[in-house]
Amino acid sequence: MTRGYGRFNLLPDEERQAFFGAMRPAQVLQSGEDLAMEGDRATGCTIVLDGVLCRYKLLSEGKRQILGFPIAGDLIGPAGLMLGRMDHSVRALTPATVATIPRHTFLDLVATQPHIAQAIWREVLVDASIAHEWLANVGQRPAYHRIAHLICEMRVRFEAAGIATGPRFAWPITQGHMAEATGLSSVHVNRVLQQLRADRLITLALGVLTIHDWAALQRVGDFTPDYLFLNSRAGDAQATGAVCELTRWSL
Amino acid sequence: MTRGYGRFNLLPDEERQAFFGAMRPAQVLQSGEDLAMEGDRATGCTIVLDGVLCRYKLLSEGKRQILGFPIAGDLIGPAGLMLGRMDHSVRALTPATVATIPRHTFLDLVATQPHIAQAIWREVLVDASIAHEWLANVGQRPAYHRIAHLICEMRVRFEAAGIATGPRFAWPITQGHMAEATGLSSVHVNRVLQQLRADRLITLALGVLTIHDWAALQRVGDFTPDYLFLNSRAGDAQATGAVCELTRWSL
DNA sequence: CGAAATTTTGAGTTCACTCAAGGATGGTGG
DNA sequence: CCACCATCCTTGAGTGAACTCAAAATTTCG
To answer: Do B140 and A114 touch (CB under 8 A)?
Structure first.
């Protein structure tokens, strides 16, 4: 069973098959491997089947800003395809499985299959909405609340993708990554996590995150899931598509 | 003469007329007036004809994060239309002129006019790219560099929109707005601006910004305009469309 | 001209950072 | 199976960038 094609499983049969049929064979990325680099001419649109990746930008002085953590069902590169080049890089944080639709096939699908086009634009727009929320998070919230917000988001997205069920799940994001995502230093992230633990909100150890008080964590993180636009029918995480080898990273 | 429809002037004649013809009569916003609120069901897609607006999110504790400064040629609300509700609010910072295409007409245009659809998606994707750059700016750069970056971006966008020519132009963004855009306090913005002035990079007074050393300012701001995706044909700022009353806010 | 908004200044504080070192953990190969 | 290495996590101490509060000066607008 494959982790999920996210919303793309909800497409009408014909278009769903067209979409899945357009994908090249699934491809496995090693942890730390780059899938695309900022400035690259995008050669295709990639859908994440399994694993956790990060979008990022490199700045002068070696700083890095993580822009998001794509997981199963998320798309990599549609914007790059349509604007001509990638505005950010993408790297696997865990072993990951992805499948790519070549540039031409993808543009054809978007032009001729309205439901596919709609599903893709939805993903793109939700990504933009998430970027807005992250900007607000990094710009306005103190470290403690900022980290809580990130954890809330990932929990909800993991559940929506069918990766996590319940308050205990694999957390493949290092404190260094959390620092780069939130604009904090990794030392400070570590201290904030200890505080969240002392406050009985979460524990995070050995790659496993446990949420002890979901309501309080959301309150602290000032989190409401509206910006994720998950409000369509439930059940879109049950995958029915093509079988592929899965890398193991989750619990 | 109208300030500009941005890239929409580049559409083939037939589609350009369809696009302009779909707009309701231009509408004037007062400074400080809200055009849309987060959570609103979007009723149309609005194109900015003149003036400067801001997209923003309100957070708990009364904090506000500004997500961008739409100017002539920019679109408000296409994402809101397609996702069902706005993920952020939009407010005029200066008197502004805008024109709206009603929901149904807009969706029809997108579905039936490929060049219009392409132009709109381009705008949407560039907005997302800008949000990514802002996230990196706010997350990683110190205040001094962060403000420099914002000034560089606005200068380039003002020029591309035909609003500014040369290094001296109207700057309707208060220090309070700059603070909310960059995640700094307005007091600190003020001190950074004084430092930029002491360093002979800019002067900003009475709503007029002068850039004294563009090369140095870009260096300080770690600014390259790639993420704005302005690389298509020049001359798209010459407006030829319908005439409308213009509010005066620029030099 | 007066009221409101914005900018500026000063003083004191704090949140988050840097630097540095020591402990865990996990993967790899002998 | 264990030794080793790389990565990641943790802790301590000192520093600094940016913040808050408060009030005065300036500009804008009705």
So the answer is: no
C-beta of residue A135 within 8 angstroms of C-beta of residue A207: no
Q: Which residues of A touch B119 (CB under 8 A)?
A: none
Residue pLDDT, tens place only, A146-177 = 999 999 999 999 999 999 999 999 999 999 99
3-class SS at B87?
coil
**Local structure of A150: helix, strand or coil:** helix
Residue at the smallest CA–C1' distance to nucleotide C25 = A206
Q: Within an 8 Å CB–CB cutoff, is residue B19 touching chain A?
A: no
Locate the chain B residue with the closest alpha carbon to A145.
Answer: B60
Distances (CA, A) of A48 to A35, A98, A106, A248, B12: 11, 5, 15, 14, 37
Low-confidence ranges of chain B (pLDDT < 70): 1-4, 232-248
Residues A226 and A234: their CA atoms lie apart, in Å, by 15
Can you list the residues of chain A whose pLDDT is less than 70? 1-4, 232-248
Give B58's contacts (C-beta < 8 A, 6+ positions apart): B38, B64, B89
